[in-house]
Amino acid sequence: MIKIGNIELGEFPLLLAPMEDVSDPPFRAVCKMNGADLMYTEFISSEGLIRDAAKSVQKLDIFEYERPIGIQLFGSEITSMKDAAAIANQANPDLIDINYGCPVKAVACKGAGAALLQDIPKMVQMTAEVIKMSDRPVTVKTRLGWDDSTKNIVEVAERLQDIGISALSIHGRTRSQMYKGPADWTLIGEVKNNPRIHIPIFGNGDIDSPQRALEMKNRYGVDGVMIGRGSIGYPWIFREIKHFIKTGTYTLPPTIEERVETCRQHLVKSLEWKGDITGIHEMRRHYANYFKGLSHFKDYRMKLVTSYDLNEINSLLDEIKIRYRDIAA
Questions:
Q1: Tell me: the pLDDT tens digits for 296-315?
Q2: Pair 163, 124: CB distance under 8 Å
Q3: Top-tier CATH class for 3-247
Q4: Is the peptide bond between 182 and the residue preceding it cis, with omega within 30 degrees of 0?
Q5: With a threshold of 0.70, does the pTM exceed it?
Q6: Does residue 263 carry a catalytic annotation?
């Protein structure tokens, strides 16, 4: 049984990666329905949180059905991160996660996210202060290093464990790689198999199929995997991996009815959380992913991403279900 603090996650937990503009409560809801064991909020700016910025505060919204769930914070100033952790604790998450992995310029070039991989002493001090402030487990998500010449994840893992983090998720790329090229899991395996390491180690990067998840489990011994882009428009990846690891066989892919109904559930949650106009607008980024691979879908997609009429959108979803069910038959 893998545990983070007192949180029991099962034998080989599947984590939903925190993804900006993706892993909000509506998306998390459909991932939870399909077997995600631990999820995180989108990453939240510590500066935004302590200044009570509306966008940052809204990201603190968590719901009972999502548990266990972590709030992920990022920032470049130790005092701000400490104060943000105090605010995040009040939202009653199951854990606090620190982002030391985000590679985008807007974050890293301001000294936050993956930038801390260039200043390990500051990373350690920042983490220690968050741990002191938090009354629940603190975990970290990071990368192999800043670039190919500074892959310092083994040192990072030891030092963060020594000051008290409860688990570590490692993305198998450097900051300079961004999301390009294949993820390198060899160093993730080195961290996991380091005799000094006793906290759970979760691997992240290119988990896009059940066989890939099982391969990483068997080859590197990780305690679980974190899934990001592989879940976008395909929340069924969690149940498919669980079935494959348990039975060694593939489960059937989602039917067109299931694709439509899951998309509709996502839409309903989006409307509930964001209101009608914003909920409809922000759902638009997901339609192409839910119906990826359907032939001649462009006309439907264009109608879905231009309509603000909920009745019309539901009628389009019904039409998609009937048309592509008939084609499949």
A1: 999 999 999 999 999 999 99
A2: yes
A3: alpha beta
A4: no
A5: yes
A6: no
